[in-house]
Amino acid sequence: MKAKVLLLTMLCGAVLTLSAQEYQPQVGFSTENGSKTNFKKNKASDNIFISIAGGGNVLLGDLNGNADFGDRIAPHAAISIGKWYNPYLAFRLQVNGGLMNNFSDNGEQEFQWVNPHADIMWDVTNFWAPYKESKVFHFIPFVGLGYGVRAGTSVNGISYLRSESLTANGGAQLLFRLSKRVDLFLEGQYVLVGDHWNRTYTDRHEYDRPFEAMLGLNFNLGRKEFEVLEPMDYALLNDLNSQINALRARNSELEKRPEYCPECPPAPVATVAKEYMNNTVFFRLNSAKIDKNQEGNIFNTAEFAKKQGAAIKLVGYADRKTGNPDYNKGISERRARAVAKQLIDKHGISSNNISIEWKGDEIQPYEENAWNRVVIMNTNE
């Protein structure tokens, strides 16, 4: 008995330890199967779910009586708490139980039982199909281990003692999204317990087998969606490295100049034509949020416009290989307006000096698809 309790305690402790780790694995969607997509890790407090369910169970044991199937059905309930570590893998702790009916030569037994267990859940829909947080239907099989306890009972003057057994649990959920925070699910679960569970010993079965069917609600806590990680753009990275190396070479040449130079007559003042600047702000997939590493381009454009007294024209774009024309038109507008807002709020550019256009995916200014998630800034007189 002590060994069984220790085993269950260690199992629950392992699951809770996983839940306590701070995972930091996108809002949006993936164009590849979930198994081929990389996701940012969310916080430990995100992607937690609590569920309640109710239904019925049937004990498929050594049924020596002639009971109808309907007479064997008994009420059943369950409560669960779990966490999704990515869109297709979760752990949960569930406690289920209620009444159970058993029929034998000694008559009908009705007893209470409870079965706490820890499960690994696999969202097949997200694993094999492209990930999309707003997907309505999910097929989620699961397997787990637990511990079952049935209360003692008395039938026709015969007392049946309390039974305990390790359990193997398995089944599947059909889950339907009602809203971002609430899901409806139908769950079927099959449990293996020791042959002595129903206190009827025969050579027909090595295990007793309760089957449960339940309907329930899932409540999602914290952040529910996962963010897709885009693969690194190595062409852009190599270009930036080339620019850095060129600047280093120029600095090396400048360091060779003498510290002091002989005085020279002042050079005549040349008339310099007004300069113009073109600059860019690149965005992540399905995002109109300005990354920190892009804010320098906005700052440079704003300072140049102030110095030259120039107006700024913003044109937003979206890449053609993702989304659809209507969606891309909208996100290119949001990108352009986000850049305009930062120019006005953060850098003091007057809205009268800013003009905005958005092209969606009608025009692709760059051959590289990912580069077309961009707002191009032009200064003019």
Question: Topology of this structure?
Answer:
Elements: H1 2-20, E1 29-33, E2 48-60, H2 69-72, E3 74-86, E4 89-104, E5 107-122, H3 124-128, E6 130-132, E7 137-150, E8 153-155, E9 158-160, E10 163-177, E11 182-194, E12 207-221, H4 234-254, E13 278-282, H5 295-308, E14 311-316, H6 325-345, E15 354-358, E16 374-380
Parallel strand pairs: 14-15
Antiparallel strand pairs: 1-6, 2-3, 2-12, 3-4, 4-5, 5-7, 7-10, 8-9, 10-11, 11-12, 13-16, 14-16
Describe, in short, the structure shown.
By secondary structure, the chain is α+β, with helices and mostly antiparallel strands. It has helices spanning 2-20, 69-72, 124-128, 234-254, 295-308, 325-345, and strands at 29-33, 48-60, 74-86, 89-104, 107-122, 130-132, 137-150, 153-155, 158-160, 163-177, 182-194, 207-221, 278-282, 311-316, 354-358, 374-380.
Detailed description of the structure:
By secondary structure, the chain is α+β, with helices and mostly antiparallel strands. It contains six helices and 16 strands. The protein has helices at 2-20, 69-72, 124-128, 234-254, 295-308, 325-345; strands at 29-33, 48-60, 74-86, 89-104, 107-122, 130-132, 137-150, 153-155, 158-160, 163-177, 182-194, 207-221, 278-282, 311-316, 354-358, 374-380. Strands 2-3-4-5-7-10-11-12 form an eight-stranded antiparallel β-barrel. Strands 13-16-14-15 form a four-stranded mixed sheet. Strand 10 (163-177) and strand 11 form a beta hairpin. The termini are far apart. The relative contact order is 0.12. Residues 11-27 have low confidence and may be disordered.
